[in-house]
Amino acid sequence: MSDKGVKFVIGIYDDEDILLDAISSVRGKGVNIHEVYSPFPVHGIEDRLGYKRSRLSIAAFCFGFLGTCLALTMMIGMMTIDWPMIIGGKDFLPLPVFIPVTFEMTVLLAAFGMVGTFLVVSDLKPWGKPKTFDLRSTDDKHVMAIEIEKNSMSEIQLKKLLESNGASETNTKLMEE
Amino acid sequence: MKDIFDFNIGIKKNLLYLFLGGLLLCLIGVYQLVNSGHAHEESTEIVTSYISDNGHSEYHWYKRVYSNLWINIVYFLGISISAIFFVAIQYVSQAGWSAGILRVPLAIGRWLLPGSVLMLIVFAITNHDIFHWTHEYLYDKSDPRYDYVIDGKKAYLNLPFFLGRMVFFLGIWYFFYVLILKHIAKEDKLGGTASWEKLFTISTVFVVFYAFTQSVAAWDWVLSIDTHWFSTMFGWYVFASWWVSALALITYMIIILRDNGYLDFVNHSVIHDLGKYVFAFSVFWTYIWFSQFLLIYYANIPEETIYYVERLDSDFYYPFFLVNLILNFFFPFLFLMTRASKRFTRFLKVACPIVLFGHFIDFYLMVTPGVLKENGGFGFLEIGMLLLFLSAFLFVILNGLTKLPLVAKNHPMLDESLHHDI
Question: Is the residue at A51 inside a domain?
C-alpha cells in the first residue's frame, strides 16, 4: 500500500435499525466514527452520531438579511436618491411599495445562500470531489466509515467490532486526500 | 398522570375575581362615558369630512358599549370556531402528532353555543347602532337620506337574509361540532378505527363548509359595518386573525396545563410544532393584512382608501394601527424566529398572550372606526369588557375540559403523538 491517502475501515449494514444500534455501541467503545452514509434519511441518526445542530439556519438568516438590505438599497437608490419620480401620487420614499420586492429578494437570497452553503459544507460543490466509500450506499446499503489513524484500535480490532455489531461486510479502503 | 381536568374551587374563584374586576372596570367606563357627554366632539374634524355618512345616526355613549360587545363576541366566537377547525384539519390530514392534545381545542369549541346565543341577542339589541345598513330609510327613495350604494346591495344586505345566514352558519357549525364530539366520545368508549374514519369524513365536509361560510360570516359580521367599503381579502383577513388567536390560545393552554401536571407526555417536539403554527400564521396574517393594504394604497381609489383614511389620518386610531402591526407581526416574527424560542415554553408563555391581545386590537380596529367614527376610545370600558368576556369564555372552556378525559384513550395514532420527534 502506498503512503498517499488515509486508511478507513468500512462497515456495510443492511438494515437501519441494526445500523442505529451499531452506531451507539461503536461510539460507546470510544471509537470515533468519520461518517455514516445511507441511501435515505434515517430518523434519529444525528442524535446517535452526536452531531451538533446545523448552523445552516444562521447562514439563511444572514443571507436573507443581506437580501433585505440589498433590495432596499437598490430601490431607495434608484427611486429616491438617483432619479426621484412621482408614481401614482406617492412620495419619493413609498416604503409599502418597496415591500414586495424586498420580500422577494430576501427569500431569493436566503434560498440561494442556504443551498450554496449546504453544497459547499457538504462537499457537493461543483469543483469538489465527493467521497464515496462504497457505491452501494447510493443503492440499498448503509456505510459506516471509521478512520483508523484517529482511533486507538487496530484495523483488525475495528473490523471485529463492526462485525460483532451486525455489519454484513467489512472492508478497508484508502481514500485520497 | 392526571387524566381528568380538575376544575377546582380555586380556579373558579380566580375567574370570579376576573369577572368582578371586569364588571367594575366596565361600570367605571360607563360612568365616565355618561358624564363626559360629548367631549370628543370637536376633535379630528378632518376625518368626518372624508366620511360620506349621509344620515348616519348620531353618537350616543351607549354606542361605544355596543361596539365593544360586538368586538368581543366576534373575537371569542372566532377563536372558538377556529379551534374546532383545528380539530377538523387534524382529522382531515390524518395527523398523528396532535392526537394527544386534541382535547384542548375541542374544549375551546364549547364556547360556540353560548357565543352564538350571545351574538344573536346582542345583534337584536344593537343592530341599528352597529350596522348602518339596517336603517330602513336608506332604501326609501323619497327619503333625503336615501343611499344609492347601499340600496344596490339590498339583495344581499337585508335583515331576513342576514339573520338567516347568521343562524344557518352558527347552527351548522354547532351541528358539526356536536357530531365531532359525539364520535370522539364514542371512540373513547368503543375503540377501534371506525370512529376515526367517521371523523375523517365529518371533518372533510366541515372544512369545506367552513371555508365558504367563514368568509361570508366575516363579510356579514365585520365588513358590513363599513357598508360602503368592501375588500375581497376580508374573509381571509378575519380568518387569519381568528385562526392565529386560536392557535396561540391552544398553545398557551397546553403549556399551562402541562405546567400544572396534566398532559405530561407533551414533549418539546409537540410544543415546537405548536410554536411553529403560531409563528407561521402570524406571518400569514401579516401577508393577508398587507396584501389588502398595499392594493388599496397603490390603486388610490377614494371609495377604497376611506377605510385606511379613517384609521391612518386619525390621531386616535393611528397609534392602534401601529400597535396592531407591532404586536401581530414584528413581535412574533422576531421573538419566535429561533428554534429555541419555539421549543421552550418560557418564550411561548410570553408570546402567546401578547399575540392574543394583538388580535383583540386587530378586531378593535376593524369594528370601532366604522361604528364610532371619531368618537372612539380605549379605556376602562374596553379593558373591562374584555375581562368580562374572557372570564366567561374561560369558565365555559375549562368547564368543557372536564367533560372528557384529557387524552384520547383509543385514538389510533396516539402512539405517534406520544413519541413525536422532530
Answer: no
Give chain B's domain count. Answer: 1
pLDDT surpasses 80 at A177: no
The C-alpha cell at B278 is: 403560531
A–B interface: beta-carbon pairs under 8 A: 20
Q: What is the mean pLDDT of residues B35-41?
A: 61
Q: What is the pLDDT of residues B377-405, one digit of tens each?
A: 898 999 999 999 999 999 999 999 999 99
Of A43, A88, A99, which has the smallest distance from its Cβ to B290's Cβ? A99
Looking at the complex, does the CB of residue A96 fall below 8 Å from at least one CB of chain B?
A: yes
| Confidence at residue B61, expressed as pLDDT on a 0 to 100 scale | 83
The pairing of strands A142-147 and A33-37 is antiparallel
Tell me the sheet residues that pair with A170.
A11
Residue B284: inside a domain: yes
Task: Give me the interface pTM, i.e. the ipTM.
Answer: 0.79
Among the partner residues B294, B337, B339, nearest to A96 by beta-carbon distance: B294
- Asked if the structure places residue B86 within a domain, the reply is yes
Q: Which residue of B has its CA nearest to A46?
A: B422
Which of B271, B263, B90, B253 is CA-nearest to residue B184?
B90
Task: Say if the Cβ atoms of A97 and B300 lie within 8 Å.
Answer: no
Give which of B251, B241, B258, B173 is closest to B207, Cα–Cα: B173
Residue B14 domain flag: yes
B244 within a domain of the structure (yes/no):
yes
Chain A residues with beta carbon closer than 8 angstroms to that of B294:
96-97, 99-100
Q: Is residue A147 part of a domain?
A: no
Beta-carbon separation of A99 and B297 below 8 A: no
Residue A43 contacts B where some CB pair is shorter than 8 Å: yes
B352/A118 Cα distance (integer angstroms) = 33
Write out pLDDT tens, residues B43-99: 444 444 444 444 455 678 889 999 999 999 999 999 999 999 999 999 999 999 999
Q: Which residue range(s) make up the domain with B235?
A: 9-36+60-408
- Would you say residue A175 lies in a domain? no
**Domain-embedded: residue A86:** yes
Q: Which domain holds residue A109?
A: 56-121
CB contact under 8 A, B421 and A44: yes
pTM value? 0.89
Cell numbers given for B312: 391612518
Over the stretch B160-210, which tens digit does the pLDDT of each residue have?
999 999 999 999 999 999 999 999 999 999 888 999 999 999 999 999 999
Query: Is the torsion defined by CA of B243, B273, A68, B318 positive or negative?
Result: positive
Q: What is the count of structural domains for chain A? A: 1
